[in-house]
# Entry
Amino acid sequence: MQVQLLDIFDGWQHASEPERILSFDHFFTHLTQRCETHTSRQEVFAFVLNRFRKAQQLHGSINEQNISKFGKELDFVYNLLVPLLTDETQALWGLVSPSGKVFYGTDAFYQLLKQEKRACQVMDKINAINGKDVSRLMVYQLIMERLYRFGDVGLDNLIYTFQDDATELPRYYAVRLDNTFVQVTAKGQLPPINYQALRRKKITEVRESDLDSLLDLNNFRIEGFSIVSLEDITHEYVVDKLKNIVIVGGDYDYHRYHEAIENNLKLLTGNANLKIGISPVLKLNGRPLLHHQLAENSVLYRFIKGVAVDEHLRREWLGYLEDPYPVTYRVDAGLPLVSEPLADLAAQSGLDSLAVIPLFYNQDVVGLLEVYTEQGFQISKHELPRLRVAIPLLSQFANDVCVDFKNKLDRIIKKRFTAIQPAVQWKFNEAAWRYLQADADYGPTSSMPFGHVEIRFNRVYPIYGAVDIRNSTLKRNYALLADLMWQMDALGTALLRLEAIHPLPHSLMATFSRLKAGLNDSQLDYSQVAISDFQNGDIKTVFDELKQKDGRLAEIISDYEYQMNPAVGLAHQHRRAFEAAVKTINQEINQHLEAFNNRLQTIYPSYFEKFRTDGIEFDCYIGQSIAPHIPFQEEKLSAIKYLQLETMAAIAQGTHRLAGARPIALETTQLIFINNAAIDISFREDERRFDVEGAYNIRYHVVKKRIDKALVKGTSERVTQPGKITLIYWHEESLHDYLHHIETLQQNGLLGRTIEYLELDELQGVNGLHAIRLPVVLR
# Structure
């Protein structure tokens, strides 16, 4: 154990700093309380307290200047705080003053700190690894936790890494900081804090400049000492990294992931000289094969493809792919030795040692893991078992690559061939495989662009709008209920006419009466299914029999069946009327949006797409990256915003006119979501559409999907209303262009003069939204 001051904060100072005092008072108070509550250890605690009391009488109160004179007493602190069986020579443990100076710790801890300080600034390294100013946030953490009861600080998983001299590989350590014996007080009255600035945020999510304005650290005092320890988490760190690689999903950048996997497996085994090959075993019509791009890290596959190999040896390799099993070459690890032909192959490849481990997913082989060494290095028998924890993750990774391969085959078949019969599917599989073989990069070809080509536009401005048919679900249900009631009335009439001629089964009449009595809007889904089953089941069976018995019965049944015809019968009249009204509304909306898009393209080439709901949503993206050869100016964006607003007003007027001309009056609401910040979009091949990229951009996408249900704050009123255009926005600055356009449209007689400024209730994960509502002049 050592007593020595070592500044791990490297003398960092800020304009706003709390008063920091090394003190053992809180520790002494803690021991005194333990003396009263833990009688079995009372003598031990009293002894330590007495030792410190006598030492302080001799040397004065403990401070950073005289701490070196309390070495023996600090040993007692170590024995109290650390389990007795802990290996002191290996433990990375120490005590730190509030000023950031280590003053006592194990030899191993001091040795690590001194080694790291020679190589780099310790706190610089911690900040770089964890992506934040840790030393600064620690202070805010203490103050917020102790004085303001703000618990979610986000500093629980600090990581430190350093190079292991023995393996020449990095080791990862969790930094554990225990502030039990630290006391935080305010100098004078506790300053108030703006909790709104921290709402739904962790301390690590608040900018440092905001923290400085939130709290003046000069108003606080920190006394005591902290306990710091480092725990080796390299194993857990590697497993988490491998999990992240598997979880990413999507089209795999196999080569980048392979390098990351190899580096992490070296960390897991502790052998920097290992070479790793992960070869997904693809299946074509049930036969295994290795793709040359995906198997380029397989040393055996490279050797077979690059050298004239004996045909028997090649067949041995292909046979092994059919039924692989774990094998080793010059590795004493308790695994089976590789068969003689493959041993010859490994020897001819110039390998010093080799282990091949099959990867299985749901009992199907999906890949091979090759672990090998060259240039005189060996695989130790202790290293392979350490890979066991990674095998399920590597199996998932290989399976995802195989699934990706199968999807590529399917896309080629769907794109280049017409519908095919299952019996000849294998032929198309082979044709698609040949296309992939011709693609040297496992991606696009000159004749067939797909795969790894990324279609992406950066810094485009989104224009979003939605026209929704208000209460469409409710009105659809009304129409459905009306049709079901008409159908049951028609069926009841038919049954009475039939029974007057021929007796009907009692159970049939009882079921009819029960279903008709239970028909209401509260059980509509159940009634719809039950009545349909009744009509297509019992009724159809009985009616089919009756039609054969008597011409009069057949005539009654034919009349009933004609009315039940979905295309022409009155049984579905309300549904058809509702669907016709919706179709007419959507045609009106589409007409205006098509005109909007046509005019839009004359202003500046833009990406425009529509989505059909009960109404229509549209997205438009405009920016320099979409048309690099045409200069883009902000004025063009402003012109498009005007066109969007004008189009929404025209849609509101058009749908209002239709409402008075249809049997079912449907009203529409018009919504615009304003996002003035540029975003990035890329084409998603799996969904055949453009989608946003990046966390901030995805948030924009999430918000626009939720705002149509937004309520005016403090009320149950929907922010969107028929006959009005609602503009939702984050910041008032976003309205600059729109307010100018609104004034123009008011002067042109399209919009009314009243503008409602509204604040919205919080949505799931979204708050701080505002809206303005504009009345459309309806004629």
Notes: The first strand starts at residue 2 and ends at 7. DSSP finds 22 helices and 24 strands in the chain.
